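We modelled the chain as a single entity of 263 amino acids. Its sequence is:
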Amino acid sequence: MKKLINGLSVFFEGSSSNKPIIFIHGFPYDHTMWKTQIDELSRNYFCVAYDIRGLGESPAGDGQFTMEQFVDDLEIVVNELKLDKPVICGLSMGGYIALRALERMQDKFAAAILCDTRSEADNNEGKLKRAAAIKRINLEGLTPFTYDFIRNCFADEFKNNKQSELKKIIEKSSEFNSIGVKGCLLAMLSRTDTTQSLSNIKIPTLVICGEKDSLTPPSVMKEMFHKIPNAEYVEIKNSGHMSPIENPEEVNKAIISFLNKLS
């Protein structure tokens, strides 16, 4: 089912009487990246996913986004749907949103799942790369940027063996509003560093990383994992940055095992 909340397209599956999980997608994707997880988990959980402002079916507006605005959106969705202590699950940019949300309102969540993400803010090199991406989109349009960026998110196994699926993912993201994509780049470029607050995370936390992730490699995510009390770490084989798509069976197995321990 779909509902508009604060202008955002929000989707949910499963019985609302079950324990809620809220999924936050990465950049430059939409809520459908979690399809395999939601198909599996909605049997026993109330699964909520939404398109981040400016991506998917959520409007771009003026494209002047901040990470704080994205966290505000998350809070509004949780409150509007009256989600009682949901498990928060975010990948990459969705992980940035989740980590900042845990700084601001950890008491709203029962547990956290952090997939292929990092707590550090962009360093100068990272900021310049985001700025260059915005410039490229302005000069060349969205499609060339999307093609190169998304291909870099996946390990060679997926690129070689799932070419048609990868093509569909690239084509879908290429149809998004370029104003929204650039707005997300601005929000990531200007986000705060959440590393110092990792030790303050008291809720159970699962950290998931693709073993071949070149954007947030295992070495980076293990450092984050070690700073979070009561955390678990799972490395997903034959996966790059998009582990829920590249090896959904192993990701589902890790998430279900984690959730079973909570109950």
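As a brief sanity check on the tokenised model: The beta strands are 2-5, 8-13, 20-24, 46-50, 87-91, 111-115, 205-210, 231-236. The chain has one domain: 2-262.
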